[in-house]
Amino acid sequence: xxxRGLRMQxxxxxxxxxxxxxxxxxRTPWRCGTTGEPMxxxxxxxxxxxxxxxxxxxxxxxGMCLLARPVGAAAKEPVVVTPAASFSHGAPPPAxxxxxxxxxxxxxxxxxxxxxxxxxxxxxxxxxVGGAGGITTREEFGDIQLHLEWASPSVVAGKxxxxxxxxxxxQGRYEIQVLDSFENPTYPDxxxxxxxxxxxxxxxxxxxxxxxxxxDIIFHAPRRGADGKVVPGSFTVIHNGLVVQDHVPIPGGxxxxxxxxxxxxxxxxxxxxxxxxxxxxxxxxxxLS
Length: 289
Description:
This protein has about 290 residues and is mainly beta. It folds into two domains: about 20-70, no CATH class; about 80-285, Exo-inulinase, domain 1 (Jelly Rolls). The protein has one helix spanning about 50-70; strands at about 20-25, 25-30, 80, 100, 110, 120, 125, 135, 145-150, 165-170, 175-180, 205, 215-220, 225, 230, 235-240, 240-250, 270, 280-285. Strands 4, 6, 7, 9, 13, 16, 17 and 19 form an eight-stranded antiparallel beta sheet that branches. It has a five-stranded antiparallel beta sheet with strand order 5-8-18-10-11, with no helix packed on it. The longest helix is centred in the N-terminal third of the chain and has 17 residues, at about 50-70.
């Protein structure tokens, strides 16, 4: 859930005529007259009587909005650093790698509820098909080194979290954000390379829309200690050759929209369908445990 904006005039009963957005795509217009007036349309919208009930409801919505903000939303905006022309783009898998996508088949992946993966495969890449749901590896993994390459759509559509959005979920629980972050302001821990909702990237290493980008990620999974308490894992992420997460702790709680939860020894890789036609290619990993 994303709290995008709240604008109000000082004091009741006249709540602002702007809009309060609790989550993407959900807008609640507020138009108010004086107390006791019947409800009436205002410029094509509707009016809300600022009774005691309405005031309490408004306060409740504000509270929910604040609680719903990502954990690290107050983080500082990452500095933009232009990456080199190439880093690990097209890197061939090493001898001990598990190849998850070689550009030809989704045989290693399944869709929602175990159905066949519904994404498009052509020209050596797979592409998100909006509404088909995310895809998940058939195999499960613990600690890994993951390489993958991705590209946001070359034709820019939308903004903020609605532009070139997807995500890579480790063990189906912990997300490294995929987003078109080239000249596209959003909250810092929601940018490309972020440990979503937890840690903003150290720098913004995004390429232009449509250009292939690389992630090289070292993942150590959270686990249960002998006393039953969670021992945090960690993320180290290299985005287009630049370190954007440096051994950042993973507390163990699942990130927003994760398809699974709970600390486990092994889990699948999950690629998110956020409705944008993001492309992936050259996905492989090495087991570290």
